[in-house]
From TrEMBL:
The keyword Acetylation does not apply. This is 5'-nucleotidase SurE. Pfam families: SurE. Residues 12-193 form the Survival protein SurE-like phosphatase/nucleotidase domain. It is found in: Cytoplasm. GO terms for molecular function: 5'-nucleotidase activity; metal ion binding; nucleotide binding. Its main location: cytoplasm.
Length: 278
């Protein structure tokens, strides 16, 4: 991997909230303390788009680097293949709102940028700030200033400055980092929670989808076990989950049996003169 002319690590910084969001600028400034930062980020908000990928994107120069008319995954590919090909690490964030729980990982544009980078064999980190829901103030009206992201970017700067030399990415593809809203009380290495609590309620011609995990974080009723990302954040610690990008596979004897019987079953159907599946 390359380094900048100054011999510092070069960070490709992206996000899904948009290049002009306060969390992005806060993280840009924090990473600039420990290396060279090149912004390759969506020109506008592309939250919750997962790994949606385009075939062509427009790019314009921005004071921080490049603004891309595309998704976070677009930014990772365009950045690593064209705009910042010698990046030592891709950092995505700082996202307004936590990305915690196994079910969230595939939805998040922030996390998806880190996943995309991992397929290029470039170390990556997704960084998010938990913004409490269910209070008197709508969470969308919180975290509007760069200073609000202080805790999250402090953790991100610490990890960006140390993980490459520490050999962290010899055993993991990317880190998913989530910081609590209040000042953190330490850092914990975690695994994604598997608790899932989505509801869907029909209301006339529409169906309202609601993720109850955020409400349960606020009222303390979420049954996350020790060692999970959501439990750590709920208790005021920075959560760091070391993750791998490819989906894992598990040996399954029942499937082995079905595969073994496939040719025989199809042959019998053909003998009966029917098409497979009929």
């Amino acid at each position: 991997m390359g380094t900048s002319a100054r011999g510092e690590p070069r960070y490709l910084l992206t996000n899904d909230d948009g290049i002009d969001s306060p969390g992005f600028r806060a993280l840009y400034d924090a990473l600039s303390d420990v290396g060279e930062v090149v912004a390759v980020a969506p020109a506008d908000d592309r939250s919750a788009v997962g790994r949606t990928l385009s075939t062509e994107v427009n790019v314009r120069e921005h004071e921080l680097g490049y603004a891309v008319e595309g998704t976070p995954a677009d930014c990772a590919v365009a950045g690593l293949e064209s705009l910042c090909p010698d990046a030592d690490m891709v950092v995505a964030g700082c996202n307004k709102g936590a990305n915690i729980g196994a079910y969230v990982l595939g939805r998040s544009g922030t996390v998806s940028a880190a996943v995309e980078a991992a397929f290029f064999d470039v170390p990556a980190m997704a960084v998010s700030l938990y913004v409490p829901a269910g209070s008197d103030t709508d969470w969308r009206e919180l975290a509007t200033e760069e200073a609000d992201y202080r805790g999250a970017v402090t953790a991100a700067r610490y990890l960006a400055d140390r993980t490459l030399d520490a050999g962290v990415f010899e055993r993991t593809d990317y880190l998913n980092v989530n910081a609590p809203w209040a000042d953190a009380e330490g850092m914990e290495i975690t695994r994604p929670s598997t608790v899932y609590d989505m509801t869907a309620e029909r209301d006339g011609d529409s169906v309202v989808l609601h993720d109850r995990t955020w409400d349960r974080m606020v009222d303390g009723s979420l049954p996350d076990p020790e060692g999970t990302d959501r439990r750590a954040v709920a208790e005021g610690r920075v959560s760091v989950s070391p993750l791998t990008a490819p989906h894992t596979t598990r040996h399954h004897e029942a499937l082995d049996g079905l595969a073994t019987e496939y040719d025989r079953a199809v042959g019998e159907e053909r003998e009966r003169g029917s098409k497979p599946g009929e």
